[in-house]
UniProtKB/TrEMBL annotation:
Family: Belongs to the DEAD box helicase family.
Presence of keyword tRNA-binding: no
Biological role stated in the UniProt entry: RNA helicase.
Organism for this UniProt entry: Smithornis capensis
The protein's name: ATP-dependent RNA helicase
Domain comment as written in the entry: The Q motif is unique to and characteristic of the DEAD box family of RNA helicases and controls ATP binding and hydrolysis.
Residue ranges of every copy of the DEAD-box RNA helicase Q domain listed in the record: 58-86
């Protein structure tokens, strides 16, 4: 038979039957990510960028960062990632190149140390596994000191002897 309904009822009926499409869900997800980046003043360029993290716990959940590294992050008193850490860590854990700029004291060292240490926990390959180049001895010493706080000194050698001697 024929079913008669008002235009208001028809609109409600149509809206009820429509399920969100994959494209719409992806668009909503991207909008949410962009709002998060804007809220934290994170500016990015590039394609197919990994989503930023909101908590350090996501590193273990999504990226399988070694539990010891996670323990050391908590023990050092880090509770919430800074904006540079929110975006730079996922980018580096995805093996992508990164050029990042942030003010002094914003957490850049931790932002690159976590991905490096995560990489170093993987099976060894021959040759250099990580190299950090610093423009000054003072900055090299700071990076060395901060990096050592996230490794077990008996199991890993974070800084070369030449940095310590010069």
């Amino acid at each position: 038979g024929i079913k008669w309904m008002s235009s208001l009822e028809a609109k409600f009926e149509d809206a009820k039957d429509k399920k969100p499409t994959a494209e719409k869900l992806e668009r909503l997800r991207r909008e949410k990510i962009n709002r998060f980046r804007n809220q934290h003043r994170i500016n990015v360029q590039g394609t197919d960028l990994p989503d930023p993290i909101a908590t350090f716990d996501q590193l273990q959940e999504e990226y399988k960062v070694h539990p010891k590294i996670m323990e050391n992050i908590q023990a050092a008193g880090f509770r919430v990632p800074t904006p540079i850490q929110m975006q730079a860590i996922p980018v580096m854990l995805h093996g992508r190149e990164l050029l990042a700029s942030a003010p002094t004291g914003s957490g850049k060292t931790l932002a690159f140390c976590i991905p490096i240490l995560t990489h170093l926990k993987q099976p060894r390959n021959k040759g250099f596994r990580a190299l950090i180049i610093s423009p000054t001895r003072e900055l090299a010493s700071q990076v060395c000191a901060e990096g050592k706080g996230f490794v077990n000194s008996r199991a890993s050698k974070f800084c070369s002897e030449s940095v310590k001697q010069h």
